[in-house]
Amino acid sequence: MGFRLKTEISFREDIPERIAAIRDKKVWIVCDGFLNGNPLLEKYRKALSIANRVEVYSDIVPDPPLTKVIAGIRVFKQVRPDVILAIGGGSAIDTAKLINYFAHGLGYNRETRFIAMPTTSGTGSEVTAFAVVTDTETNTKIPVNDAVIAPDEAWLDEDFVMNCPKKVTGASGMDALTHALEAMVARGANHFTDGIADKAACNVFHFLEECYGDAPSREARIRVHTGSCIAGIAFQNAGLGISHALSHQLGSEFHLAHGLANAILLPEVIKYNSKDAAAAAKYAHFARIMFFAPRECTDAEGAEALVREVRRLAANVGCGQKLHELGIEQEKYIAAIPTIIKKAQKDFTYPGNPIEPEVEDLVRILLAIY
């Protein structure tokens, strides 16, 4: 697969200079509705308004449905922006990506500059060429994967996550960890992705618990925020696997937060993937460099140590539950398993897994997390 990064990344201290370079443009800010009136968003809106015409669009909902994307395209057609600044979590950035992608496909304003600014530390959407739209009629998540979808720029300002709620911090951080650990062993992995996947996972393991605490330092927030972005670069190039393939379906079927679903699935997926010698060796290498396991441990022992640490971290950031603890009824869950598996096998992340699972393997994983 090689290695590619389309998106230019700027950090908090660089952003004023980037804003100053935008002049005499129509700027369309696409953001989560709850950010309307947020002091940080207002800071950026006012800064951009000095030399540009700025409009704000905030008709965003979680797991962007096709109807909302179509509504956004209609507004895009009216505004005809020169610059899109997507500010928000994965849903806001994905919505903006999809609007921009389809609007351009329809021939509207092909030279729009697209900037993404994440307000959570988890999805990595600011640097990826993926977006997911939900067909609410069939309860299906449809991936859109095209190099042109990736933002032109990503602006990382940790101020947006300094006061992020604990529940969001924990789930989004576990999503970032899943991106890193799945990319680490994915079929498209290479030496470049291995290095950045290691770094992303290291950042999350070292700093997520502090971010989840009552008084996280700025440094901890920066480390997890950049770790999330790095993990996005890793999986954009290496691919993902069955944790994401299954979590997408759990989210659709039971309205489970994506990061939480991944946190629940990840230990079982690592255990399963460790049957592959190359995957087990990578898991064990990471466990050794993190001092989760002694240098002389076998690869199997190292992988087991990693599973223990993932479980420990998930529990410490509010994501250690089994599905039955979340109120999902057993009968309904068992009945949904065939559908979950059928849809997971068609998910765009599924082929990246290091092992091609049998249906029975997926059933065992799904039963283990209940």
Give a quick precis of the structure.
This protein has 370 residues and is an alpha/beta fold. It contains 13 helices and 8 strands.
Structure in words:
By secondary structure, the chain is of the alpha/beta class. It folds into 2 domains: 8-161, Rossmann fold; 166-368, Dehydroquinate synthase-like, alpha domain (Up-down Bundle). The protein is built from 13 helices and 8 strands. A 6-stranded parallel sheet has the order 1-8-5-4-2-3, sandwiched between helices. The chain has a two-stranded antiparallel ribbon with strand order 6-7. Strand 2 (26-31), helix 2 and strand 3 (53-57) form a beta-alpha-beta unit. The longest helix is centred in the middle third of the chain and has 22 residues, at 191-212.
CATH architecture descriptor of the largest domain = Up-down Bundle
Mean residue pLDDT: 95
- From the spread of the alpha carbons, the general shape counts as globular
- Which structural class best describes the helix and strand composition? alpha/beta
- How many structural domains are formed by the residues? 2
Distance between the termini: 36 Å
What is the class of the largest domain in the CATH system? Mainly Alpha
Number of strands: 8
Please name the fourth-level CATH homologous superfamily of the largest domain.
Dehydroquinate synthase-like - alpha domain
| H/I helix tally | 13
Give me the side-by-side strand order of the main sheet.
Answer: 1-8-5-4-2-3
H/E order of the elements?
Answer: EHEHEHEHEEEEHHHHHHHHH
